[in-house]
Amino acid sequence: MTSKGKTRRMMSVGLIGAALALTLAAPARAGETPTAAAGWQLTPTGTDARFRGLAAVDRSTAWAAGSRGTVLRTTDGGRSWRNVSPAGAGDLEFRDVEAFDARRAVVLAIGEGEASRVLRTEDGGVTWTESFRNTDPRAFYDCMTFFDRRHGLAMSDPVDGKYRILATRDGGRSWQVLPSAGMPDALPGEAGFAASGQCLVSSGPRDVWLATGGGAAARVLHSADRGLTWTATTTPIPAGDPARGVFGLAFRDRAHGIAVGGDYRKDQPSPRAGAVTDDAGRTWRPAATPPPAYRSGVAWLPHGKAAALAVGPTGTDLTTDGGRTWRTVDTGSYDTVDCTADGSCWASGEKGRVARLVTKDKD
């Protein structure tokens, strides 16, 4: 079979084929689509905000949340974006967004004290309601996740030596701080990274994982009861510095997960920037061939058990063996990535960049 024939065969299997087709391409220059039949296609957002928050709903609908209180929504696959930013939010830094459909979404603003807030919309961003404002100057909320349309959590950096967990049972309309008795002590200097909206992730109805860095070790904390009790495990991703640790997590089920991270400083190397688990995070193994640089976001491709994408400011990497080995397939800058059950992947980052993974014979 010719190389061209192989490419066509791979494209025929949809999104998985699109991701695998990326392995046939030489790395592109920053912001360009690889020369093979698949790659990231930038969409016209009309802004230069940095989007570290991304929620892909399906092929047509996605939300992006970022700097200067900016929230965008598309319902036509990225061909156009509507600015649905909350009124008066220009001073807020949105770092996470969780969307249930084209009308309902929840965004998290980060920062010390009252800068940490949660807002919710039920009309596609026409109006927003503030459902939580942090009044504790010691708290700094980083990430948010939802188990379903009603139950969700948000996490703050340690307060009184333990991570603080905020919970909702009504889709983000109201929030309560959970008891800290079941939370292990934080390490000195340890915190979460609000880099991609993926320092707190869930899989299934009850399991949730929290990523850390900055302390002597980069750890992942796991709860199997929606945040009431937690266990902590050290990962092989280096830490020992405020700029190092685990930045992003993705679980394709309650057992199999990938962690990515490194050192976010441009002049510092990021060895061992990837790790994998197959026991719900009780143990973590280093990637045999890790991403070559700091990566902040990671997502499993749908309908498969072995393929995933990791992104960061220097590129996108693909694994086809569950996170054990990675290959760079694009050199454009992205902070986070998200894939949907109906077969689409999206990425977002600096300078208003939001892209979709496309093939020439689709989209």
Question: Describe it for me?
Answer:
By secondary structure, the protein is mainly beta. The chain has 2 helices and 28 strands. The protein has helices at 3-11, 15-21, and strands at residues 38-42, 53-56, 62-65, 71-74, 82-83, 93-99, 105-110, 117-121, 129-133, 141-146, 152-159, 162-168, 176-177, 200-203, 207-211, 219-223, 231-234, 244-251, 257-263, 274-277, 285-286, 297-300, 308-312, 315-319, 327-330, 336-340, 344-348, 354-359. The strands form 7 sheets. Strands 1-28-27-26 form a 4-stranded antiparallel beta sheet. Helix 1 runs antiparallel to helix 2. Residues 1-16 and 22-37 have low confidence and may be disordered.
Mean pLDDT: 91
Task: Write down how many β-strands occur, each being a DSSP E stretch of 2 or more residues.
Answer: 28
The description of the largest β-sheet is: 4 strands, antiparallel
Number of helices: 2
Structural class based on helices, strands and sheet pairing: mainly beta
Strand adjacency order, main sheet:
1-28-27-26
Shape: globular
State the separation between the terminal residues, measured CA to CA: 26 Å
- Uncertain parts: 1-16, 22-37
Task: Give the H and E element order.
Answer: HHEEEEEEEEEEEEEEEEEEEEEEEEEEEE
Q: What portion of the residues fall into strands of 2 or more residues?
A: 35-45%
The helix content, as a percent range, equals under 10%
* Rg computed from alpha carbons, rounded to a whole number of angstroms: 19 Å
